[in-house]
Design a protein that fits this description.
heterodimer; A: 221 residues; Rossmann fold; 2 domains; four-stranded parallel beta sheet; three-stranded antiparallel beta sheet; B: 308 residues; alpha/beta
């Protein structure tokens, strides 16, 4: 899923400062799972903002709403009748969702209420960890199912670097060395011959480096 | 000859080679490089110039190499893949060769978080293994990696760094093998203090016949004090300094520790000379270049051979 983190409340208050009436839009997708942008968070954030603005003597009217997904036109359309009545939309969906709203409602300012994180997994309750950079050319079959682009701080294709110490990355002892994980798994799978092969330079054009990407499925158009 | 560099010639003639290292200054003052060059000259076959080591911004490695050349020293260009993509790397390889740099060391580079600019974007378009392959392809095939012909192939004696002490130990020798396959003509090792482990590494390397395929230059760094030993052990990733080494220098009174460190370094070089497959020594006297002559001379490696 796409993860996110809360923005500091001061930052959000500064963003909404010019407005008296706005929509606070949550999303039932990924950001609900990582507890940062769902219906519950909409309620909590709306209350916090209202209280702060009341205390400042400048009340803020907030319309609370949560869409099934902010990245799908079908659900985004549900806002169409509403937006005209408000000065701005504060969205706590991921960056994709926020931008999609901006695209669909060109006359309305969109404000990001969270910081979008990464493509990751729930390690345990309250802990999420990055797994994929969406680079568009997967080689997980060669690396024991562990991604060197994402799990190695240097995205090395022939790691580990000299900074790997007792299974930890030189960047932070709390980060496991991606290449140690890869080697352990290749050994366990009896696939160490994959380690000894020189891999060609990665083509980054399938990643974001090739420009903003899109997928077209002729069979679905 | 792949490059006709002095280092390549010395090794090809079967001499025990000596390289050292110069860190360029944190500024634009060329005199600092020239002063270091004067201390290194005559004591080595080539001198590494580091490339923004520990991600701290310094004068560029190529500029440092050129200043060394002006002083009559043979430079060895260190090149990390942290800061430049393949376009910039290729371009700098061509430029370095055009300016007469003949030795190259391909490295990953420390993560940017260790330097003054931890917010910098890290590049790592290719890794050090792929840089070896790229440099070798350009030199031997006279083409860019894209296949287009070069207007003059770069000439480099190509090297890599190896750390026999990093984790996991099981892949240390396979990794050396891979670096040789990717294009390394020589390797320089991480500082050796744990001789027992290093001998084990060499034994495993011999099982694969690797010392016959690559020149292995053993890395040494003289310790200035017991404090330095403890600091390096604690702070430098992949640095293996056994307790016995720390105790030995620590047993000396403070004012005699530096001399002890040099004595220990010389002993280490003498021991390395006896190991089958060690082609030379890489003396990293960090900000202590003035001791180089004493160390290299003390190990019986002066004067340096002149090979035509």
């Amino acid at each position: 899923m796409i993860t996110g983190t809360e923005k500091p409340i001061e930052e959000i208050l500064a963003m909404v400062e010019p407005y008296q009436r706005l929509i606070l839009a949550g999303c039932h997708g990924c950001v609900t799972v990582c507890r940062v942008g769902g219906a519950k968070e909409v309620q909590v954030l709306a209350s916090t903002l209202r209280l702060a603005r009341e205390a400042a003597g400048r009340p803020l009217e907030i319309h609370e709403v949560s869409l099934e997904r902010q990245c799908d036109p079908e659900y985004v359309e549900k806002l169409r009748g509403l937006v005209g009545g408000y000065q701005a939309v504060l969205s706590i969906a991921c960056g994709a969702g926020i931008q999609f709203l901006a695209e669909k409602f060109p006359a309305t300012p969109l404000l990001p209420g969270i910081n979008t994180g990464f493509l990751g997994v729930t390690v345990r309750q309250g802990e999420w960890s990055e797994r994929c950079q969406g680079c568009g050319d997967c080689i997980l079959h060669l690396t024991g199912g562990i991604c060197p682009v994402t799990r190695c701080a240097k995205s090395l294709f022939h790691g580990p670097c000299g900074g790997s110490v007792r299974g930890s990355c030189e960047v932070d002892k709390e980060i496991p060395c991606g290449w140690q994980l890869i080697i352990d798994r290749l050994e366990a799978l009896g696939q160490m011959e994959n380690y000894g092969r020189l891999k060609p330079c990665k083509g980054w054009s399938s990643a974001r480096d090739g420009g903003p990407r899109r997928i077209i499925r002729e069979d679905m158009l | 000859m792949k490059s006709a560099s002095n280092l390549e010639k010395v090794l090809a003639a079967g001499h025990f080679a000596v390289t050292a290292e110069c860190g360029p200054p944190r500024g634009a003052d060329p005199e600092i490089v020239r002063r270091k060059a004067a201390l290194v000259k005559g004591n080595v076959d080539a001198c590494n110039v580091t490339d923004n080591q520990t991600s701290v911004v310094r004068m560029s490695s190529l500029a440092g190499c050129m200043l060394l050349r002006e002083e009559g020293l043979e430079p060895l260009l260190q090149m990390v893949v942290r800061d430049r993509n393949r376009i910039a790397l290729q371009s700098d390889l061509l430029g370095a060769s055009a300016l007469g740099v003949r030795n190259l060391l391909c490295l990953s580079g420390d993560h940017q978080k260790f330097g003054d600019d931890p917010q910098a974007k890290n590049v790592f378009d290719i890794d050090s293994m792929q840089l070896l392959d790229l440099a070798r392809t350009m030199r031997d095939e006279g083409v860019f990696p894209s296949g287009r012909k070069l207007e003059g192939a770069p000439q480099f004696f190509i090297g890599a760094a190896v750390n026999p002490f990093a984790d996991p130990f099981a892949i240390r020798v396979p990794r050396l093998k891979l670096k040789i396959a990717a294009g390394a003509d020589f390797v320089q090792t991480q500082c050796i203090y744990n001789m027992e482990k290093f001998k084990k590494y060499m034994e495993l390397a011999w099982q694969e016949g690797l010392p016959e395929q690559v020149h292995i230059l053993a890395g040494v760094t003289p310790l200035k004090s017991v404090g330095m030993a403890k600091f390096m052990r604690r702070m430098v990733a992949g640095m293996d300094i056994p307790e016995a080494v720390v105790e030995r220098i620590g047993a000396e009174p403070k004012e005699k520790q530096a001399a002890k460190g040099i004595e220990m370094c010389i002993e280490l070089i003498e021991e390395l000379k006896e190991i089958k497959g060690i082609a030379g020594v890489h003396v990293m006297a960090i900000e202590w270049e003035e001791k180089l002559a004493e160390i290299v001379g003390g190990a019986g490696l002066l004067p340096r051979p002149v090979v035509e």
